[in-house]
Every structure is written in C-alpha cells, then in structure tokens.
Amino acid sequence: MKKTLRVILFAAAVMMIATGCTKKEGMAGSNAEKPTINLWSFTNELPGIVEKYQKTVNDSFNFTTTIIDTTDGSYQPALDQALQNGEVDIFGAESSFVLKYTQGDMEKYAVSYEDLGIDINDAINTADIAEYTIDIGSNSRGQVVGLGYQATGGVMIYNAGIAQKLFGTDNPKKVSEAVGGGSGSWDKWLEVAKKCADMGIAVCSGDGDPWHAIEAQAEKGWIVDGKLYIDPAREAFFDMAKFFADNNLTNGTQDGQPEWFADMAEEGPKPVFCFFGPAWLLNYSMKNNVKGEFGNWRVTDSPVGFWWGGTWIIATKEAAQDEAKKEVLKDLIYWITLDPTSNGLLYQWATGTFQWEFETGTKPESNTKDAVSSGTVMAIANGSVDICDGQNIFDYFIPAGVYANGKNKTQYDEGINLLWRDQVRAYAAGKKSRAAAIATFKSDVADQFGLEAY
Predict the structure, then answer these.
(1) What count of other Cβ atoms lies within 10 Å of the Cβ of residue 353?
(2) What pLDDT shows up at residue 72?
(3) Could you identify which of 52, 216, 226, 324 might form a hypothetical disulfide with 35, taking C-beta atoms 3.0 to 4.6 angstroms apart as the criterion?
(4) Any alpha helices (H) in 265-355, and if so which ranges?
(5) CA–CA dist 114, 401 (Å, integer)
(6) How confident is the model at residue 10 (pLDDT cuts 50, 70, 90)?
(7) What is the mean pLDDT of residues 170-175?
(8) How far is residue 262's CA from residue 264's CA, in Å, rounded to a whole number?
C-alpha cells in the first residue's frame, strides 16, 4: 500500500539510518536443511504476513527479509540490483510501480504462478478475484505473475449528516441514485456539487479526490505505441478542476497533505460531503483522523468505477529453479492471494482477525476489517465497521472491484500523474492557459521519460 496514505507501520523502525534498509532473519530457526526464502518489501506488512504463515501454517522454511522504504525512490533501484544478482525469491510491488515488474522493464525476473504449480485459472475462479488485479498482475504474454491480497476498488465515502441535509436521507442506495452512482458520468454528482456550494458545503476536499476515478475512466493509458497520449477522459479533468476553483466548490486541498487530513477530521474551512477511495482510505486514513461523530460516514457507489493502491506479490524465476523453494513459494503465495477458506490470509484480513508481530513483539487483539482481493471471501465475511455505524462495507466494495479497470495503466504512471496534476492546478488557479499547461506537461514528460507526444 502506498506509504504516504496507508499508515499501518508500528513504532519499531524498519530501516537502518545509514542504508535505508533492514535485513532480518525469519523466526523458524537455523535448521540448515530448510530452504531460506529471501523476501524483499517496502514496509513490514508483507514480512508480518510471511511470519504469520510460518508460525501458523508451515514452518518448513527460514526467511530473510530486506525492507527498504519507498521514500526518495530508494526501493526500486535496490530491488532491481538484487534481482539482477539473484538475491530475491519473493517481493512486494506497490500499485504505482508494479507494472515495471509484471509487464515492463523488469518483467523477465517474474515467474508465473502457473509455473510455480498453482492451478491459476481454477484458483482465480474459485476465489472470485477482481479482473483489474489480474490485468495488472499479468505479464506481456498474459500469464499471471503477481496478485494482491487487498481489494482497492474505490467507492464514494460520504458524510451521513450532510447527506441528510442534501437529500433528506443518508441511505446508501438513495445517495447512490442522487449522485449517479455506477452511471459512468459525473453529471449528477456535479449538480450535487452546486447544491453543496449553495449550502456552504465542500462537495469534496480538493480536486485530487475525484482524480483517481477520472484517471481510471480513461480508455487508454498515458503511453500508446511508445508515445505520450492524453485520453479525453483525463483531459476533461482540466474542466472539472477549473469548475471547482471558479465556483469555490472544494476546500482546495491536495490529497495526502495535512489540510486533506484536517478535512477528514472536520476541521477544514467548510464541511466536506465526500471522499473517493478504497477500503484502506476509510479504514486507516479516515479512521485515524476523524474527530467528529465517529460513525457518521457511509459508503456507496462512485459515479465512475476505479481502483487506487495495493501490493502485488511476485516470485522470481531463479527461486523457482530450486525445488524446495518453489514448493514453499507455491503454498505461501496461494495462502496470501488465493485461499478462499477461513484458514487463509484473505478471510483473516477481511474479518479483522489477522494478527502480526513482525519486529514489534506485540500481538494486537485484531486489525481493521479490510476489503480483500477475493469476492468469495467478502461475500461470507462480516464487513460491518464502526466508522460507518455498522454498515457492511463489503456490499459496495465487492462491486467496486468488478467495475475497476486495470488495462489503462503504464509503468510510468506515478511520475506522469504528478506532472499532469501540477499543470492542471496551474490552469485551474489561473496561472496558465489551458494550451500552455498542456504544452508544459508534454515538454516535462519528454524531458523526464523521453516520450514524445502524439
């Protein structure tokens, strides 16, 4: 999960000051007959999962963990070098850069789940894995080389009290109808934005809130046939951002910044009607910042389907050449990403019963219920959460995963998105003309990524 937005790290440090990384031996002991699995990660979440598997399911292996923070782009260069040196058996890749390892420059190091011995088609069907996660986790030949354990399909997260003022109800189905939930259009939602403005309410915190849905609405990605391409759906973001600015419809925040979190705490200039995001935004970012009435939030359909974030689990071809390691990785990856039973990680994650101890020495009673990659699991799990006053959030996060599109992404999205949003904000603030902003964007992309525009 993206480090700046999903803050679930414990207080114990996971990186050495001098090198930015930590190496730690697993807990299975030093039995030399057991294979040692070399795990790479950018937080201690994945090591905690592997440790839990080792302690409760299968202790036939040792593992060594290398954790390198993604701050300043440290993780990828170190991981790339380790892959080239044959020092990695399994690793996590975050949504902003996973395509580099599944179907981009580093794809050649990833082994397919099928080659590990997993009956992947049957497992995907049984677990009901969302299609967008499969698209992102498949290599250029269509083989699945990575899957996640979280579901990061997005919904609209709204303030129930404000919904009562706007619509006379906070019922999720009624609110969905009012905002055009699932329609693929922003028209109804923008009408609600005008109504919010008349009542002194911000429809959302800033233009970044709907951006991830707008980004996902694009038919094509940023790169088409080796050139920069601006999809019409993404170019329309200029119009929405300008509309927001000219009509004072938001609090003008940027997602991930202190002012954005202050809006979650209901401490901004104007009360905020809604945010857009996956379950992790609700369960971690919002839950940790709400200071008003705690159970005053609900979830419903976003006008446009989207996804945001997640971690994909990838094993290496070199590890798969070692039969002992291959057997461990096969079962471990299945348990993390595909096991639909109550014994698997997915059920524990969805029901809030997963407990991790990696590098902390503590064992919390439970963790937050979270949306997971398996629709089968979410259908049988109780997704009732306190922040939504007992609403079963899985009723909306299951279809959110179905609506999400994973075919319009590229390995350079994180960097290109930053350049794009900088220019959109410059235009919306009246600092540049639309044409000048787009020209600057194209020039910046050419300079940083060597991509000429259509």
Answers:
(1) 14
(2) 80
(3) 324
(4) 279-280, 317-320, 323-337, 345-351
(5) 23
(6) very low
(7) 98
(8) 5
User: Mind listing the pLDDT tens digit for each residue in 387-408?
Assistant: 999 999 999 999 998 888 888 9
How far apart (Å, rounded) are the C-alpha atoms in residues 53 and 39?
Answer: 14
Residue 143: per-residue pLDDT:
98
Give the pair of three-digit tokens for residue 71.
């701050």
226 near 453, Cβ under 8 Å?
Answer: no
C-alpha span between 157 and 171 (Å, rounded)? 12
pLDDT digits (tens, 9 = 90+) for 69-120: 988 889 999 999 999 999 999 999 999 899 999 999 999 999 999 999 999 9
Please give the structure tokens belonging to residue 293.
């009435």
Q: From 322, 368, 326, 375, select the one nearest 349 (Cα to Cα).
A: 368
Residue 233 burial class via C-beta count within 10 angstroms: exposed 0-12, middle 13-18, buried 19 and up:
middle
Token look-up 């930015």 returns 20
Structure tokens at 448: 């940083």
Whether the Cβ atoms of residue 349 and residue 49 lie closer than 8 Å to each other: no
Better-scored residue on pLDDT, 21 or 430? 430
From residue 66, alpha-carbon distances to 20, 82, 221 in Å are 10, 10, 32
Pairing of strands 21-25, 311-315: unpaired
- H or E element, residue 25: strand 21-25
Determine phi and psi for 240, rounding to 5 degrees.
-65, -45
Residues 412 and 222: beta-carbon distance below 8 Å: yes
* Contact status, residue 179 vs residue 167, Cβ threshold 8 Å: no
Please provide the DSSP assignment of 192-217 as one string: HHHHHHHTT-EEESSTHHHHHHHHHH
CB distance 309 to 188 below 8 Å: no
Tell me the two tokens of residue 146. Answer: 């990575």
What is the token pair recorded at 301? 């359909």
Residue found by looking up tokens 């993604």 in the block: 70
- Rounded CA gap, 124 and 147, in Å? 10
